[in-house]
Amino acid sequence: MTSDSVKKRIFIVGAARSGTTLLQSMLAAHPEIYSFPETHFFTSTIPRQFIKRLLKIYGKKEINKIQTFLKRINSNIKEDCLNRRYLSTKSWAGCLINVLDQISLINGYQCWVEKTPMHLYYIPLIMSEKPDAKFIHIIRNGEDVVASLFEVSHKNPEYFGGSKSIDQCIRRWQRDIKISKRYLSDKNHSFVRYTDLVEKPREVLKQLLTKISIPYDENVLNFKEAAETLILSEERWKKNNKGNLRKGKRKFNTLFNETEKNYITRQVSQVDLSVFP
């Protein structure tokens, strides 16, 4: 089978710690959808800055990163596109998507979901290569994202580029929400609010699957087994996505003092989330 056999390519994007893993696990439990652990294909091999992309050559270093991931998930695909250098970012992006296609096809699926939150920054590049690609943005309250990102980066600094300050967490959330807003009117982009997903998952998933033209299936509510296949052993911070849905205590209320909480609230309140459906 060729990449042309793939019917749907879906990317879940958004601010880190917004519930992207939870949504991915639910969709991966659907009998018609295949998914993989977080790939970081674009973020780990392609510069975010456009000017750097113009000068970039993609070769052995980048290919080794993709092959390391393939070995990690025990995928034995033999993709020809990983046997040569690339002088353009667009052609390399095409190779990355082709690899995802082949992983899905070799497992017997014609629809896949990829989830790396920071692929949010690569949407224009992905769309230039695959205009029919679908994107699902997950939107979460700024206070909760800041609290979760602050905590997880301090507990696992080696995986988050160091321990993040409160201001760094705020700016990250603000920047990512701003990017998501750019696609509000694009028919290939869907938006899911984290609180709705937790409080009324069946309703949210029915609406989402209808929009991306996939029939609803009750299996999406039984996502524990799917989550097990998506979370790598070192990703300790994702373990809560393996259990049942629950709200739990707000980290925001216990992690920060009153001065910090008031400051965070003032900063995130400057961003209008009411524009999201």
List keywords for this structure.
single chain, 277 residues, alpha/beta, Rossmann fold, five-stranded parallel β-sheet, 13 helices, 9% strand, globular
Secondary structure elements and pairings:
Blueprint: E1 8-13, H1 20-28, E2 34-35, H2 41-45, H3 50-55, H4 60-72, H5 89-106, E3 111-115, H6 123-129, E4 134-139, H7 142-155, H8 166-181, E5 189-193, H9 194-199, H10 201-211, H11 224-230, H12 251-255, H13 258-268
Helix pairs in contact: 1-11, 5-6, 7-8, 8-13
Give the termini distance in whole angstroms.
38 Å
- What's the CATH class label of the domain at 3-141 and 193-244? Alpha Beta
| pLDDT < 50 runs, ≥5 residues | none
Main pleated-sheet profile: 5 strands, parallel
In CATH, the architecture of the domain at 3-141 and 193-244 is 3-Layer(aba) Sandwich
**What is the helix tally?**
13
CATH topology type of the domain at 3-141 and 193-244: Rossmann fold
Q: Which series of helices and strands comes N to C?
A: EHEHHHHEHEHHEHHHHH
Can you tell me the CATH superfamily of the domain at 3-141 and 193-244?
Answer: P-loop containing nucleotide triphosphate hydrolases
CA-based shape: globular
Derived structural class = alpha/beta
As laid out across the biggest beta sheet, the strand order is 2-3-1-4-5
Number of E strands: 5
Mean pLDDT, as a whole number? Answer: 91
Q: What gyration radius follows from the Cα positions, in whole Å?
A: 19 Å
Q: Share of helix among residues?
A: 40-55%
- Tell me what portion of residues adopts beta-strand conformation: 5-15%
